[in-house]
Design brief:
The chain has 191 residues and is an alpha+beta fold. It has helices spanning 6-15, 25-32, 85-92, 106-113, 120-124; strands at residues 37-38, 40-46, 57-63, 66-70, 75-81, 95-100, 129-131, 138-140, 145-157, 160-171, 180-183, 186-189.
């Protein structure tokens, strides 16, 4: 067994792209990629700056770090990259929605996960959705489940923000097909 001193561990960690006293970025990504996760589309409506001007804009992002937190009260949580457009928007306004994507909606997940993507307005252009009554955010047609939330708490966690929301509405609009999953860096279907 190889023993390391704190100083050698720190220099080794920084040389390998890791963190002092911890795992390297690559090791952590590889281990966490073995955890299958459901895929959701998180959406929110950015209000217009001028109430007399054009309507605000819909914003969306793909997420795999989404989970239920509590039944009483009903709470759910999503993890957002700190400084992302969604993180900035939800820091200003508290209403958001989640559509749990079906296995047939891989194209939607990929579209909203792209880096350097086109405007959100174009991304929503040919996707069927209804506007949530509680949040005003898009709820994707054909999703396995939809939830509308109001932020209760924001927790800074490393390079992400954990947004905990009270669930205002929950629906199961579609029972067709299985969930879209993410495993080992790729979208997958169960079965």
């Amino acid at each position: 067994m190889l023993k390391t001193t704190p100083a050698s561990a720190a220099s080794s960690a920084s040389a390998s792209g890791g963190h002092p006293g911890g795992v390297s970025d690559e090791e952590f990504r590889a281990a966490m990629s073995r955890l299958a996760a459901g895929v959701v589309l998180v959406t929110a409506h950015e209000p217009a700056l001028d109430p007399e001007g054009p309507r605000g804009e819909d914003v969306g992002m793909t997420a795999t770090a989404f989970m239920s937190v509590s039944l009483d009260p009903p709470l759910a949580m999503v993890s957002l990259r700190e400084g992302s457009r969604m993180d900035d928007l939800l820091a200003e306004q508290p209403l958001w929605a989640v559509s749990v994507l079906a296995e047939s909606q891989r194209h939607i997940a990929g579209r909203f996960a792209m880096k350097g993507r086109v405007s959100d307005r174009l991304l929503f252009a040919d996707i069927p959705y209804v506007r949530g009554e509680a949040s005003g955010a898009p709820l994707v047609g054909g999703a396995l489940a939809t939830l509308e939330c109001r932020t209760e708490q924001r927790v800074s966690a490393g390079d992400h923000t954990l947004v905990i929301g009270r669930v205002l509405t929950a629906g199961v609009p579609s029972a067709d097909g299985g969930p879209l999953a993410y495993f080992r860096g790729r979208y997958r279907q169960l079965g």
